[in-house]
Design brief:
Chain lengths: 396, 108
């Protein structure tokens, strides 16, 4: 056993190595903790009077005040990070042009060896010209996607509490950020089983053999009508496996609504990234009382082409086919959930050009077929992922 | 009809990809697949030393896990990387072993 003394902030921590299973004995300097708690108390006292944007920023700053000082001097101790994505897109949907600036800041606050507080906000404008002409105008949506505390209990289990993304399929949790998604238009079935939930979740991943990893997530969420923390009372989970050799991933998801009509939703996902090809194949299927459907997406990086190699290795072509089978939901319900109210098919083709790490230009064309009428969907824009440290980086 | 053509095209791409990777796998055996306990890592230990084996293993796990969602990012300073990897462990349910290996690789 090695013993490491970390101090100098509002906490002093004794770690018993190995670090993975470190025992943490916090000794808190009262005067510094008092200051931090006073700050937190003021924030929460004024919570209701603060606007959403200011509240989110204030909470993050308060948490930063408490944890930034808790980081030890070691060069490999994690530090708080501000990351996220920003983008600007122009969509033309059925002849209607829409300007969409978007920003998704993510804050990551590690505490000790096992804790992580993480949060993501969404600020998205959807500006259109009014009927009859005029300047672009519209509202800016502000959402709190997640604000969760993660406790890595052991190599098998991570406990998450707070507001989190529902673990249904892979798109909601992993592919949603605009710098990650290959096509900026979300799949038609995306609203099924996804969104954010307030509650508790157990999750983890572990190997059962050198060739097979299993992963799971199980959660319960409570009903909430608090502004920006809206949630349904649900229970659900996801179970999947990943084969690191052939890089194949598959899994099933389930969600039970524990209120109103107590409906079920089921999902299935499959992804494959062959090791020797710059190809990314993903697919999801989902079914609920709102409808059912699937999408299949294939993204291919042109790095293997023998000409214009400098440009080609930065270029990715994407194709997606999807179909939604609508159930008997009203037009209003469909609008609330963001789902088509009639059977719909759609094919999309896109092109991404990675200008540099975290910065890509994107363009896509899609054709939607439905009994409401066929339409073209054009998207062009730029997405950027930013990362800023919120603490001392230490020696390099 | 057009949708069927799109699906057919995707299936063809899938089949050609399977065909493309089948031969190299036969030639290389399991070495391209397993990250740690396979022939590639053992050979690397024998030829280039333990450090190289660790690096190769870390790179394989990095590409297998991180590449599931996004392209390889640049390397950040170790203290930032430690936070990012912890975040991704939770978000992508990466195993503890993979997380340790990827963190070692990204901070070397």
């Amino acid at each position: 056993m090695n013993y490491i003394e970390l101090g100098g902030g509002i906490t002093s921590v004794t770690l018993c190595c190995p670090a993975r299973y470190a025992t943490i004995n916090p000794t808190i300097a009262p005067e510094k903790l008092g200051t931090a708690l006073d700050f937190l108390r003021k924030i929460f006292r004024n919570w209701r009077s603060l606007a959403f944007t200011r509240s989110w920023a204030a909470l993050i700053l308060a948490l930063l005040a408490t944890v930034s000082a808790a980081q030890g001097p070691e060069n490999e101790r994690p530090i708080p990070i501000l990351t996220g994505s920003a983008g600007f897109f122009t969509n033309v949907n059925g002849g209607q042009a829409q300007l969409v600036p978007e920003m998704n800041p993510v804050i990551l606050l590690p505490l000790g060896d096992r804790w992580l507080i993480e949060s993501r906000g969404e600020f998205k404008g959807e500006f259109e010209r009014p009927e009859g002409g005029g300047p672009y105008g519209g509202k800016v949506e502000k959402e709190l996607d997640y604000l969760q505390v993660d406790f890595i209990a052991n190599p098998l289990v991570t406990v998450t509490a707070g507001r989190f993304l529902a673990p249904f399929g892979i798109y909601n949790e992993r592919l949603y950020p605009i710098w990650i998604r290959s096509l900026q238009q979300v799949p038609l079935i995306f609203p099924i089983g996804t969104g954010s939930s307030d509650g508790v979740m157990l999750r983890g991943g572990f190997p059962v053999s050198p060739k097979v990893n299993l992963n799971y997530a199980a959660y319960f969420s409570t009903l909430s009508t608090v502004n920006k923390f809206e949630s349904d009372r649900t229970a659900g989970g996801r179970f999947g496996f990943f084969l690191p050799g052939p890089r194949i991933e598959a899994g099933v998801s389930w969600q039970k609504l524990l209120q109103e009509d107590r409906t079920n939703a089921f999902g299935f996902h499959l992804a494959w990234q062959p090791a020797l090809l710059p190809l990314n194949l993903r697919s999801e299927y989902a079914r609920s009382n709102l409808g059912s459907g699937y999408w299949i997406e294939c993204a291919y990086r042109l790095s293997q082409l023998p000409f214009w190699s400098k440009a080609m290795r930065r270029t990715e072509v994407v194709a997606r086919a999807q179909q939604l089978f609508a159930e008997h939901i009203s037009e209003n319900e469909a609008e609330v959930y963001g789902l088509p109210d009639v059977n719909t098919r759609q094919g999309d083709f896109g092109l991404n050009y990675f200008l540099r790490d975290g910065l890509k230009a994107t363009a896509s064309y899609g054709r939607r077929f439905s009994s409401d009428g066929n339409s073209n969907i054009w998207t062009v824009g730029i997405a950027y992922r930013f990362v800023f440290p919120l603490g001392r980086l230490g020696a390099k | 009809m057009k949708m069927k053509l799109v699906i057919l095209a995707l299936v063809l791409v899938l089949l050609s990809a399977i065909h493309g990777i089948a031969e190299p796998h036969k030639k290389d055996g399991p070495s391209k697949d397993g990250p740690s306990k396979d022939g590639a890592s053992v050979a690397a230990v024998n030829n280039s030393g333990y450090g190289d084996a660790i690096r190769i293993e870390g790179e394989q796990r990095f590409r297998a896990n991180c590449g599931r969602c996004h392209t390889a990012p640049q390397k950040f300073p170790p203290r930032m990387m430690a936070t990012v990897v912890r975040h991704m462990r939770v978000r992508a349910t990466i195993t503890d072993q993979d997380m340790q290996s990827i963190l070692r690789y990204l901070t070397q």
